[in-house]
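note to self — DONT lose this again. spent like an hour looking for the file last time. sequence + predicted structure for the chain T wanted, 221 res
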Amino acid sequence: MIPGWLADVPVVIDRDDARRAAETELSGYDYQTAQPNVVVRALTWLGRQLDRLFTAASSVTPGGALGLLVLLAVVVLVVVVIRLRVGKFARAGRVPRAVFEGHVRLADDYRRAAEEAAAAGDFAGAVRERFRAIVRELEETGVLEEMSGRTADEAAREAGRHLPHFRDELLGAARLFDAVHYGGQQASIVDYERLAALDRGVHALGSGRGNRGASLAEETT
């Protein structure tokens, strides 16, 4: 039996209203600027919970008042948790992330570090160091000017203007670097081999010019 004070609580939210309220909240700026899979998963999960709880509430209690109150509390809690987590993702996504940290080494040094990491099964570290080898190679050959604080995306876009046949691969490599190094995404041997192949292509292009210090930018534009 429902306590008298609880039975008197006006409940005006129904299934459609609750769903619309949740979707409106999750369509805000922070959610839309976060990773799309987070928003999709949140909406899908919340929709399932709404259906289950409304069905349970209507069958367990007269009028479904208690179930609806519980549902409302769950919806509020879920939205708060998602807002906190998505807010972190959105803020992190807006912070520029530099390719290099601390002392910048030679491209060959980064290659060796990448190979050692790959041999040890640390493919996240291997991806990170191999992408740095690519960017450093582009700087050493003059395709890119040496610049502190340059992000992976900036390096890929600028290099892609000078090396259009590598443009898509460079952009893909930059996204992988950011996702793995700054986003915590797992990397695989396939990811590493893709970057290694790109690095070999960029390195061969520079080696074929004879003078390693000459600017490739002038010869590829």
